[in-house]
Amino acid sequence: MTNRISQFPVLTTDEFKIASATLSRRFEQLNSSQSTWLSVNVLREEQCTFLQILKARPDLNESTTNIHGSAEPLPIEDDDEEEVLQNVRPSSVVITYDVLLSPSYQVPMLYISFIDAQHRYPPTMETLYRYLIPRQFTEQINSVGIIGGITITDHPLTGSPVFFIHPCQTAAVMEASVGNKELTPVEYLMVWIGAMGGCVGLNIPIALAQNDDTPCSE
Amino acid sequence: MSSSRDVTSRLRQTIWNGSLPLEIRLHKGDCRTYDDSDPYLIQYPRLSYLGLLIHRLRAFFSNKLIYPDVDVTDLWLEHEGVPLKWHYPLGLLYDLYSGNEPAYPNDATSSKVDTAADDQVNLPWRLTVHFSDYPVEHLVKLDADGKHLYDMFINSAKEADYLRNGTGRTVMSLSKEDSTQLWDSVQQHDFSLFGPINQKLLNPQGVNLRHIPIKLYLPHATSSSKADAAAKSKDKAPGSLRVVQALVTPALSSRQPQTVGTALNQIIPSLFPSRRSPLLAQAVLHGAVLPLASSVEDLLRVAAYMDGWMHIAVIMMA
Asked: Does the keyword Transport feature in the UniProt annotation (chain A) (predicted)?
């Protein structure tokens, strides 16, 4: 039997560390069977433990080429072509998702930035709407949902401006998503990614989500 | 009882009225007459934000600019190569970057401290305004309507509110109307607007103070080991900082209040190995070195910035 979250909907520092380590380990085990995420690492800097997920930016033109029919999926050939280009292009763009535990709210916080040698994605609201928020979410732009809570702020460790989902609603979102079900730390983290990540292109790879059923008490 | 309340409100007012003289010069790269422009001079509240000045600066320098139609959001301020963060209040920026000595509590009587300090320090504080080469990697970009500045302020105020009163389940007590009035009071630096909201925030009904909103700002040159600091600051931006926060309770036990010394010792023991005397570093708030024996709760009631936080600069001792 694995340990359950002790103070749901908030997470303790130790639970956050366990959740991060577990997710990272599961990712390593599954790495060959998925290609959505590049890496999942637990890092430590300035006495702060955080989780870093890297993802290749899939399609440079995805959100701009298809403005007229937002409901229409892109033609499949285009997707394939882009994917090939992505793999070949040496200086491909990587999106960094840093997950830190908020010292105030005691819930995970998500900081998002682009790694691009050519600096084409500065942390501006234009970049956010054009390149980060997936098309199916852009209709909610002016709503007060999670997207309304995305802002630009200094990364707590680097001091550089990055995108940020404000955590003041996270506890409420977690309660609404989970109900009375008891969660292990890694389950909490995966529910959290599911609830908060989609609007900024962070989705749990299917293989990793399926693996969620197997107990992980070791 | 009433006299201690008088002291509290008098101190609160004094801190509210604290201000700094600024001399803001146009960067020669943006100036059509090279370095031949008049500086913008202003006595500016320590608690306020430089981001509220952008329209006035743009108007003042417009006839000196190489590109007079430049966007107001391209404007940024810098002191000796350090881009100044828009969401840090002026007093914090000054305490971190001016290089001027803070005031010490045991210098003299309170009224004399200010004059004595003013004679020695290098004032006005000299800043440079730029209208090009915005450092997007280091500074959040503002918008012309001040929306982003408002967001950063309100998010910070909400976080402070949550720390003071929140559990995992309570709803944020800062209402929409309160947020608006609070921001108006910030923009106009009007204590008559700020006071009532602040009272409401600091004394919510039926809720005990849970945590003290404290943020510590450690310049990257600040470290217990010099070699360590040099290695770390190598690839950092000029003036880069480490911002540290932790849950700080108002009391250690029913009989023992949390002091500045016990809190600092808890959060960064490497820089504050003693709870009673500063050995390696000083904690500076509103230009003054904090006495380590003072209670953090008392301090919060008089010395918080407008967003409800105590933004404390940690300065290494010479």
From this structure: yes
CATH number, domain containing residue B36: 3.10.20.620
Computed over its alpha carbons, how large is the radius of gyration of chain A?
A: 17
Chain A to chain B Cβ contacts (< 8 Å): 71
Nearest to A153 among B140, B168, B246 (CB): B140
CB contacts, 8 Å: B246 with chain A: 103
pLDDT number for residue B252: 94
DSSP class of residue B78 equals E
DSSP A46: T
Q: Is B258 left (phi over 0), alpha (psi -120 to 50) or beta?
A: beta
CB-based contact A137:A199 (threshold 8 Å): yes
What band does A15 get if pLDDT is binned at 50, 70 and 90?
very high
Of B160, B182, B202, at which residue does a domain stop?
A: B202
The number of domains in chain A is 1
The radius of gyration of chain B's CA atoms, rounded to the nearest angstrom, is 20
Please list the residues that pair with B44 across neighbouring strands: B20
Region at B286 (left for phi over 0; alpha for psi -120 to 50; beta for the rest):
left
Q: Are residues B194 and B270 in the same domain?
A: no
Chain-centre distance of CA B230, in angstroms? Answer: 25
pTM: 0.86
Q: Which ipTM score applies to this complex?
A: 0.84
Distance, CA of B78 to CA of A82 (rounded, Å): 42
Q: How far apart are CA B179 and CA A198, in angstroms?
A: 29
Domain that holds residue B178: 148-202
A46-93: pLDDT as tens digits: 778 999 999 988 655 444 433 343 444 444 444 444 444 444 444 578
CATH code, A153:
3.30.1460
Taking alpha carbons only, the member of B268, B251, B171 closest to residue B211 is B251
Residue B193 touches partner A, C-beta closer than 8 Å: no
Task: Using alpha carbons, select from B68, B63, B70 the residue that is nearest to residue B36.
Answer: B63
